Amino acid sequence: MAISLQDIIPQINAEIHGAISSAEIDLVSIDSRSMQNNAQTLFFALSGSNYDAHDYISELIDKGVQNFVVTHIPENLEGKATFYIVSNTKIALQQFAAYYRNLFNFPVIGITGSNGKTIVKEWLNFLLSPDYNIIRSPKSYNSQVGVPLSVLAINKMHNLGIFEAGISTLGEMQTLEKIIKPTIGILTNIGTAHDEGFANIGEKIKEKLQLFKGVDVLIYHKNKSIEQFLPCIALAVTPFTKEQGKTFSWSFKDKEADVFISKSVVLDKTHLTVDYQKESFDLKVPFLDDASVENAIQCLMVLLYFGYSFATIESRMELLYPVEMRLKVKNGINNTTIIDDSYSSDFQSLKIALDFLESQKQHKKKTLILSDIFQSGLSNDELYARVSQLVIANKIHRVIGIGETISNYKTKFVNCGTFKSTDDFIEAFDSLTFENETLLIKGARSFEFEKIVTLLEQKTHETVLEINLNAISHNLSYFKTKLKTTTKLMVMVKAFGYGNGGFEIAKLLEHLKVDYLGVAFADEGISLKISGIKTKIMVLNPENTSFPSIIQYELEPEIYCMKGLNAFLKIAEQKELHHYPIHLKIDTGMHRLGFQERDLPVLIETLKNTPSIKVKSILSHLATSDDLENRAFTHEQIALFEKLSQRIMDELGINPIRHILNTSGISNFGESQYDMVRLGIGLYGISNDDKEQKYLENVSTLKSVISQIRTIDKGESVGYGRRFIAEKTTKIATIPIGYADGISRSWGNEIGYVMIKNQKAPILGSICMDMLMVDCTAIPCTEGDSVVIFGENPTVKMIAEKTHTIPYEILTSISQRVKRVFYRE
Fold first, then answer.
1. pTM exceeds 0.85, yes or no
2. Collapsed DSSP state (helix, strand, coil) of residue 162
3. Does residue 189 carry a pLDDT above 80?
4. I need a labelling partner for 792 at 20 to 30 A (CA). Which of 10, 85, 571, 783 fits?
5. CB burial class (10 A; 0-12, 13-18, 19+) of residue 76?
């Protein structure tokens, strides 16, 4: 992007405060945390129910940003930058993107549907890139904000666009259509995602079809459910009809479709016979599952529409590959952390990956391993100059470039080594040093950077717990919508982040600017501080012997008894501390920890005239916030908390933060938010309320693989104690995970199951320490195939119900020998 502010301002109807720079804008930003913000940035200060980017404008000015689209000028900033005042900054961003899109005249493919959008987009990019300079949505940037940011990355060298559009409720697609303005439409599979935003499936289809009201052609899987709604997207004078050539349909069943397809499975590939325009040809795609085959056919339809020869289509389609849509965080050798983005290399996704690196860096030293970058729409000179600027802005300490082109631009980077190929890098690997650093590995698929990841990754056994960082962000945002804008938020990361991983989640939460992190014991907090976490950390169950360490690492202890208070006061006075923050716990009925009402006179008297400490907050804990049958008891607790905390405040003349609500309390007793709430299990995607559960996203997926498959005869047994006896010939798969990894033995003996190839495989016999066995008789699987232990199905909540426990126990029981892999979609 390179566009003048004078051209932008009329498009967003802004009132100008300050001098308009004559310099061109080359970056639009909405993220105050991005290290790429600079003097050529136009920052849109978006705001929502619980966030407001206006709060960070002062920091951005300090970084050199001078141009801001705002709804108001923050206090004391008048004259310190140029402000463009609009009524709604998100709408202004959308208006600007729509204007910018209209500056270009080339084919644009718009993709929507419930499933498959990102995969179809990535495959089309692969299939068409030999012939076009393509601009496409990075990752899954398909929202009301993601789409504008995607479109604003177009430059004059692009000659084909591929953008995806996602919606969650009525009225959203009309806005996205104006921004994308597709000339070719693709409607992928319509499923159940975001059903809650629509009254019925028909309403959802009608809304999605709004993306295509101006296209030259709509590609879709022919079926009556779709076709009954096509008239709803009629243009002012031109109806959307097949007769006028505006639809291009395919089918496995309906021979009236423009393209009729037959399929069969041979070994590990699906063979397709394609009948089109009275001709027929065959091709193979390297997938067996229905979803992948349908996504591949959507791509096939585009190639046919573009007029590619059958031979070209056949040769390119056979090379399709599984799309990795996630940035993964992995543990590496020699105390390194790997951010694995080894399947794509384009300029826009590099910017996203560098922002992710900053949010997840676990070491001061940062290394970028980067392949040649394709399809930037820029000359190589300009491209690598910009990449160099990104590297400098993100304070990358070392660059390793791999590829013929990037090797020619080695001098653009400080502390850079280059290799002509991935094989050259691998050959030199033993002479390179990687330790105590965060490594971003980003390469185009053709460079096979997965080989580099394998070299650098810390070796563990094949069972992994995948943690979806997007889901954590989503769940945090969901609970924020229940809070007043003034309510602070503490998030619990105790017990190794409820089994999900302490530091990585804490780092994300710090990036998302939560007010406090909560841990149970001092060593948890110390570990986070040593790792670089700067957010305030409250220790909820400190032992008196840990007080010196708590002070040393600037943790904040919860004090719940006079013995603990006196012990802490003694140390604080010895160290001559002044107003060191402590948090008072009141027992209002949980009867676990806390000062009771009879303790208050001594407590208050002790706290008077103690300048070494300061009561930062007063808290209590609800016993039955998740049980509405005990609503009266919860109200009694809240009333007692109000009474006792107010007494402390009045007699000491203080005004600390007060907090009593946990996750269920936020949902069920939101009127008692006080000054702060404590979010726990809800962050990890689990609610006690089934209605609320559907709004939360699954965070943790426990996966393993099939170690061995065997077939046993009728009468043979499986496992210790012969607790399963086969009643017929049965195919058994052994999975390398057991109760030492945290899988309860009560989940065995055909009570529980795992998922293989999206099918249930019942657990047979007793679960062993390191293994369990399942019935896979009806499942076409092989050794090495992936197995889901829990995630979307079965859910942690479901397993807890069946094994008569709670989700907390399931999550926190997962052994730390199970590797955690963190990823962002």
1. no
2. strand
3. yes
4. 783
5. exposed
